[in-house]
Specification:
The protein has 352 residues and is mainly α. It has one domain (3-310). It is built from 13 helices and two strands. The chain has a two-stranded antiparallel ribbon. Helix 1 packs parallel to helix 11 and helix 2 packs antiparallel against helix 8 (175-197). The chain is globular, with a radius of gyration of 25 Å. The chain crosses the membrane at residues 35-54, 66-88, 94-112, 124-141, 147-166, 178-198, 204-227, 234-254, 260-278. It comes from Loktanella atrilutea. Residues 306-321 have a biased composition (Basic and acidic residues).
């Protein structure tokens, strides 16, 4: 199996696990507040995160090098996680995913003021078309918009902003810092609000929350492995497979059937996102914000690849020490200057 095929397969498995993770959120959302679900899923993820933290060999402290950017990223993670969990609770799965898939479009927009990247006309047109797809899904004026729709949009915006911030500071910050601060932020904020919404949890539901944490952690590891194995242009579009999982899970467990407008709008959004990814893969400059970020919304309960993990590894040229014999120019081959060949032929004698 080629490296790109392996990366695509790992990504498909990862996003299938994420979709299963979202199904459990929707099941629990029928009985509990998103605040309680986020709090316990983050709390139960700390033991798993500790394993990753112990493997971090990078020197340094837990103090972020970019504290204000890290604070903003933590806030976006808190808002994104809460809004996404709430949207999954009150809206059909396929409709939530269709809105969240607008993240690559928003990443393209936000990369201009934050990263200073140049977005050319064709990608701007793709962004406009994709946003029209969002309007097709929402159908303002013909359907009653709920708080769930606003939550899904806010989650897409927050997730996009968080991805751009990671793109901006990820090369300077330690993985420990990038993962720990959103988790701590969710733990503190959701824990402070838990007293107002808490409902007693039976053992079965505690087990489901633990499964949510495990699924998110494993899927995060698989996404990182996928980006390491394959090219970003191959791995990134695999996120759109979640709409297939969402449709199947919705029909199987929640009696949800996507209507024509949702299918059409999702198709427009996905096509726009794929076009942006393909355009970025052909770009010769650094303006590739979507390929270098991940559009999966962040809740602070799973790992995410950093910019350095999204870049294909480049082979470094072999360095020859100055003291090595092959590094010095010596006469050979009839006195022409150059390096001594690895294996010299014996000199012929006159008697041969």
């Amino acid at each position: 199996m080629s490296s790109n095929a392996r990366g695509a397969l790992l990504a498909l498995i990862a996003f299938g696990i994420f979709a299963t993770h979202d199904v459990l959120i929707k099941v629990l959302g029928g009985s509990y507040s998103p605040i309680q679900i986020v709090f316990f899923s983050v709390t139960l993820a700390f033991p798993l995160a500790t394993v990753s933290l112990m493997r971090d060999n990078n020197p340094g402290t837990l103090q972020p090098r970019h504290p204000w950017w890290m604070l903003l990223r933590t806030v976006t993670a808190i808002v994104t996680g809460f809004c996404a969990f709430y949207a999954f609770t009150v809206l059909p799965l396929a409709q939530v995913y269709a809105i969240l898939f607008a993240a690559p479009l928003l990443i393209t927009i936000l990369s201009v003021p934050i990263l200073g990247e140049t977005v050319r006309l064709r990608r701007w047109l793709a962004v406009i078309v994709g946003l029209i797809g969002v309007l097709v899904v929402l159908r303002p004026g013909s359907t009653v918009l709920q708080l769930g729709h606003a939550a899904a949009l806010l989650s897409a915006v927050g997730g996009s902003l968080g991805s751009i911030i990671v793109r901006k500071i990820g090369a300077d910050e330690r993985p420990v810092v990038l993962m720990l601060f959103p988790m701590l932020g969710n733990f503190l904020v959701m824990g402070s609000a838990l007293a107002f919404v808490y409902q007693p949890l039976p053992i079965a539901h505690i087990g489901m929350l633990a499964v949510i944490s495990i699924l998110a952690f494993v899927a995060g590891l698989l996404v990182i492995a996928a980006y390491k194995a394959g090219e970003a242009v191959i791995v990134a579009p695999m996120q759109y497979s979640q709409i297939l999982w969402a449709t199947a899970y919705g029909m199987l467990f929640f009696d949800e059937t996507p209507d024509g407008a949702t299918v059409l709008g999702a198709g427009i959004i996905i096509a726009s996102g794929l076009y942006i990814v393909l355009r970025e893969s052909r770009s010769e400059d650094s303006a590739t914000p979507v390929l270098r970020t991940r559009a999966r919304f962040e809740t602070g309960t799973f790992l995410r690849p950093r910019p350095r993990e999204l870049d294909a590894p480049k082979a470094e040229p072999r360095k020859v020490p100055d003291t090595a014999p092959s590094a010095k120019a010596r006469p050979h081959m009839r006195g022409l200057p150059g390096r001594v060949p690895p294996l010299a032929e014996p000199r012929r004698r006159d008697s041969d």
